[in-house]
Amino acid sequence: MKKNLRNFIGWLFAVFFISTGFARRIKKRAKSGEFILSVFFHDPSKEIFEYCIKWLLKNKFVFLTQNDLIAISNQKKPFPKNAVIITLDDGWKDNLDNVVKVANEYKVPVTIFISTEPVQNGVYWWSYIEAGNKNKLINTDVEFYKTLPNDERVAEVKKIKDKIVLNREAMTSTQVMEIAAQDFITIGGHTVTHPILTQCSYEDVYNELNDSKKTLENWINKPVYSFAYPNGSYGDREAGILKELNYNIAHTTKAAYLNQASLQNILELPRFFVIENTSKAEALCRMLGIWQRFFD
Predict the structure, then answer these.
(1) Is the dihedral of CA 54, 56, 59, 63 positive or negative?
(2) Are 192 and 114 spatial neighbours (Cβ–Cβ below 8 Å)?
(3) Residue 287 CB coordination number (10 Å)
(4) d(CA 89, CA 246)
(5) Cα separation of 230 and 194, whole Å?
(6) C-beta separation of 179 from 112 below 8 A
(7) What are phi and psi of 260, to 5 degrees?
(8) Start-to-end C-alpha separation, the chain
(9) 37: which strand partners?
(10) pLDDT by residue (tens digit) across 251-289?
(11) Considering only CA atoms, which of 149, 102, 145, 148 is closest in space to residue 125?
(12) Full-model pTM
């Protein structure tokens, strides 16, 4: 009930924003070349993801790749007009049907940033926290665990893992290999365990970035040079290690338009997040950066 009420209220706000011309003005600004839309998802339904892709195509957006952004940043390509880049975080198994098939059908490039341990073990760490709460083993939400030093968080999650068995959520390594061979999919790094990097030691950060890169490159037999910060948490230390390990581009969760100034910080690129389980109207407003102007 709460989710339905929240979605209905969100839909009302989104319809208001669209009907009063916000979407039209954003389209005009994008068409003039003021910015590139950078949009990311986690585990969207096919209905929402396909709706967003079809809307962008209908409005004649040009879809960019990671290499395009690097070339624009290096001034080897001009800053484009009416352009967008689409990325996804984590590597959820439902991305195969809901994202990869759509990308191939409409011939649009998509980057999927993958954490390697969930691919190997099947489950993301926060799902154990959610299951622990549901089964009344704990009474503390995921956001609290994100504030813990990494070693402490790992130890607490392990206590729940020892008591609960969850079904696979992530792609398998074979599936990662298969989609990486397809024309419109790029695989990027997203650490090994999806920790909060700012809660990790220097050694742990280095290993998370280095080991995941090596594992992905071994799976897909291609260089992995792009990255997305888990939870959007990073600092100068994390960006410096990325540079040391020859990552060429990295994405944050900062909600802002990708303009020529932000492209100069190639390891700190902003993106707009489209949440799961929302209406098409709200998804559109989030994708265009309208929603984020008024709500967190």
Answers:
(1) negative
(2) no
(3) 26
(4) 20
(5) 6
(6) yes
(7) -65, -35
(8) 22
(9) 84
(10) 999 999 999 999 999 999 999 999 999 999 999 999 999
(11) 145
(12) 0.96
Q: Which residues contact 268 (CB under 8 A, 6 or more apart)?
A: 234, 239, 250, 252, 254, 262
Measured CA distances, 113 to 108, 171, 224 (Å): 16, 12, 10
Contact 242, 209 (CB under 8 A): yes
Give me the residue spans of the domains in the chain: 2-122+168-294
Dihedral of CA 82/179/67/44: which sign?
Answer: positive
The identity of residue 142, as a single letter, is: V
CA torsion 67-70-71-77 (nearest 10°) is 100
For the record, the structure tokens of 14 come out as 């989104």
pLDDT per residue as tens digits for the range 24-52: 999 999 999 999 999 999 999 999 999 99
Tokens of 288: 């265009």
Q: Read off the tokens for 128.
A: 């154990």
Residue 296 has pLDDT above 70, yes or no: no
Would you say residue 1 has pLDDT above 50?
no
Q: E strand or H helix at 153, and its extent?
A: helix 150-161
Q: Count other Cβ atoms within 10 Å, centred on residue 45.
A: 16
CA-closest candidate to residue 224, choices 107, 97, 67: 67
Superfamily grouping for domain 2-122+168-294? Glycoside hydrolase/deacetylase (3.20.20.370)
